């Protein structure tokens, strides 16, 4: 996948019988998914223009260019949608895109490398960093809070973790 692409949503399936799709938006404001211009598939080879039609249960109804039948819409179920990172708004210094965090080296406050940020999860109660590495028996899931992650240094490619008692 081209490194400049950021996932902003996914096609959750068809909606109706005339080629409309159900979109799951990963944008802070869900309707922004249609405002970034064409969206791309993961390989960056296929692009779609999105026209939102209505809110639907679990997402947004939309028409996407080139899709005119329910069967075509069904075939796109599960396809993630990406935009060039340059089209996204610049974030304040204390906010980060998940894609910027994944792959960063993770160190404890004593400077010992624990592993890398493998993924960022959000199950509704806030972001969790998944840290994996050869020195860890199993993956660590840590809340992405200032108390646990006091330093994120994108330029140096690392995060500093202040591990909760019992994990260090």
Structure summary, number of beta strands: 13
Helix content: under 10%
CATH architecture of the largest domain: Beta Barrel
Tell me the CATH superfamily of the largest domain. RimM
Radius of gyration: 19 Å
CATH topology of the largest domain, which one? Elongation Factor Tu (Ef-tu), domain 3
The tally of helices reads: 2
- Spatial order of the strands forming the largest sheet: 11-10-9-8-13-12
Which of globular, elongated, flat, extended, rod-shaped describes the shape? elongated
CATH class of the largest domain: Mainly Beta
Structural class: mainly beta
Query: How many independent structural domains?
Result: 2
What does this structure look like?
- This protein has two domains: 5-87, RimM (Elongation Factor Tu (Ef-tu), domain 3, Beta Barrel); 98-161, PRC-barrel domain (SH3 type barrels), CATH 2.30.30.
- Strand 5 (50-56) and strand 6 form a beta hairpin.
- With 168 residues, the chain is mainly β.
- Helices cover 6% and strands 40% of the residues.
- It has a six-stranded mixed beta sheet with strand order 11-10-9-8-13-12. The chain has a five-stranded antiparallel beta sheet with strand order 5-6-2-1-7.
- The longest helix is centred in the middle third of the chain and has 6 residues, at 70-75.
- The chain has two helices and 13 strands.
- It is elongated, with a radius of gyration of 19 Å.
How would you summarize what this structure contains?
This protein has 168 residues and is mostly beta strands. It contains two helices and 13 strands, in the order ββββββαβαββββββ.
